[in-house]
Design goal:
The complex is a heterodimer of chains A (about 110) and B (about 110).
Chain A: E1 4-5, E2 11-14, E3 19-25, E4 33-38, E5 45-50, E6 54-58, E7 61-66, E8 71-76, E9 85-92, E10 101-103, E11 107-112
Parallel strand pairs in A: 2-11
Antiparallel strand pairs in A: 1-3, 3-8, 4-5, 4-9, 6-7, 7-8, 9-10, 9-11
Chain B: E1 4-7, E2 10-13, E3 19-25, E4 31-38, E5 42-51, E6 54-57, E7 65-66, E8 76-78, E9 87-94, E10 104-105, E11 109-113
Parallel strand pairs in B: 2-11
Antiparallel strand pairs in B: 1-3, 3-8, 4-5, 4-9, 5-6, 7-8, 9-10, 9-11
The chains are: A mainly beta (about 110), B mainly beta (about 110).
Chain lengths: ~110, ~110
């Protein structure tokens, strides 16, 4: 069973600080990684995707990928109360097949005003 | 507006009463899929479809059926719903090309089976 692991939280971060969310995956052949944000009762929405080792920045968000250590992280700078949500890590499984997206169970982030 | 729509958004039903949740997308996506989301279990894929008349099982297909007669529609059918199918359901579609792995989710259908 190829797995994606996230700390469920809640992770509590003061407003204006950096929130760091982590995700580890077991499938060493995985090549594509995604972060989704999900507000309670709403559908997941894509924040970022990353395919290459290193950092990828988009506004206040930075995704970091380390394939050797099999982890991917999401940093949120200048955290805002509106960032309070559950963040889902998703990994594309290797090994072929028509589909292959595995989601972690998510980390619940709370930004304290 | 490009979107994935689902109906109904909320449904309370009883065990054994057949139901269909509709999903429609207006982005001309070939790929569509259904997920269920449960507390502590996360998002799990039920079925997916690569194109019209092409469907395949995901991770948790038991108790569900799907059909794909048109590109834009991908209904989820519960022939005989049971209480363990109480869940939040999401339909999703993907574009072709460089963003082919990015899922666009519908708003969700909250189903309660009594």
């Amino acid at each position: 069973q190829k797995e994606v692991e996230q700390n469920s939280g809640p992770l509590s971060v003061p407003e204006g600080a950096i929130a760091s969310l982590n995700c580890t995956y077991s499938d060493r052949g995985s090549q594509s990684f995604f972060w989704y944000r999900q507000y309670s009762g709403k559908s997941p929405e894509l924040i970022m995707f990353i395919y290459s080792n290193g950092d990828k920045e988009d506004g206040r968000f930075t995704a970091q990928l380390n394939k050797a250590s099999q982890y991917v992280s999401l940093l949120i700078r200048d955290s805002q109360p509106s960032d309070s949500a559950t963040y889902l890590c998703a990994v594309v499984r290797s090994g072929g097949g028509a589909d292959g997206l595995t989601f972690g169970k998510g980390t619940h982030l709370i930004i304290q005003p | 507006e490009a979107q994935v729509t689902q109906n109904p958004r909320y449904l309370i039903t009883v065990t054994g009463k057949k139901l269909t949740v509709t999903c429609s997308q207006n982005m001309n996506h070939e790929y569509m899929s259904w997920y269920r989301q449960d507390p502590g279990l996360g998002l799990r894929q039920i079925y997916y479809s690569m194109n019209v008349e092409v469907t395949d099982k995901g991770d948790v297909p038991e108790g569900y059926k799907v059909s794909r007669k048109e590109k834009r529609n991908f209904p989820l059918i519960l022939e005989s719903p049971s209480p363990n199918q109480t869940s939040l359901y999401f339909c999703a579609s993907r574009p072709p090309g460089p963003l082919a792995l990015v899922q666009f989710f519908g708003p969700g259908t909250r189903l309660t089976v009594l």
